[in-house]
Amino acid sequence: MKIKNFIGLVILVLFVPPAWGTVNVLDIRSWSAPEYTRIVVDLTGPAYYDLFELSEPNRVVIDLKEANPLLSKKEFIINDPVISRVRWGCFTPGTVRVVLDLVKPAETKVFTLKKFYDKPDRLVIDIFRSDLEKKEEEKRAVFQKKSRGTYIVVIDPGHGGEDPGALGKTGRKEKTITLEIAKKLRDAINRERNVKAFLTRENDYFIPLRRRWKIAKEYNADLFISIHVNAGFNQNKRGAEVYCLSLGGASQEAARILADQENSSDLIGGVDLASCPDGVDSILVGMEQTRTINDGLILGKITLEELKKVHSINFPEPLQAGFAVLKAPDIPSVLVEVGYLSNPQEEKSLSAYPFQTKIAEAIKTSTALFFKKIGGEVASVN
Q1: Statement to judge: residues 241 and 331 lie in one domain
Q2: What is residue 54's three-state secondary structure?
Q3: Which end of the chain is more exposed for a tag (fewer CB within 10 A), N or C?
């Protein structure tokens, strides 16, 4: 009996597939931004890894320790200005090697993100090309010199990349709708005289919240408008809302809840919180900040007046809370929730060109009225 049991155990071991590691690699994907490319590795647990660089050709190599690859593919092509290809496989038992084939030498930043809601543990590798960063900075600096006498509006399409934002019943994503509306708003503003609009992002990639308003500062912006789409448990709720910054408590519980949701974007989209400086809020003091918040409230009220001509609104006044994306100390800022993806009918409207255009035109008119109110004028408002 003992010999038979031993033989059976040997046979069982021989036919069990090897499981070298304790962490499974679930997915590997990329997001391309103008200044860098992000590689995200989804894992079933914390990442243990070694990272090193090779030249001729230029590569970044990440060895994931105690890991198994649960992936059908073994590579994908990117062909952006930073990375040409990503490939992976079992290097040794228990080690998954991921290789990034670079276009040119680049700087590498790597960090881990813990499981957060439906996002698993992640390893994030950001590959920066300093020449591309410099090019973006120079482009903004050149425009600053040319823009004297011109009002500047920076439009921020909410979410992006790893962070989809709200989701509709049919699968429509907030990050896609916000980008579509933001582009229409930019184009509408740019058809006017004495005003120029720019976007914080042009495609599907994530930008940290602080970086968004810092881009506005690099453009020397006069206004910052962050476009979002809401969602809730009540499928009948619909309509637009406008939010402004508060340095104290929220004006309503609804505003506090929304601010908490929007401020979690960095945890979903992927930000190395250890590298964020402490005391950022210390700059948000003094008379300048108070004036900026008051100007934001003026813009918010005008925006609501224009939006209710084309859409329903839920609150007659802007609500206030501590939105991280609105914390530029010297740029009047508003966050516009243009509708509810959780409402099936409104999801259809938000995805439709005519409705998006109406919303964009209403917000454009509100910017023109704001500039007129503070002493300037653009062509669309007499």
Answers
A1: yes
A2: strand
A3: N
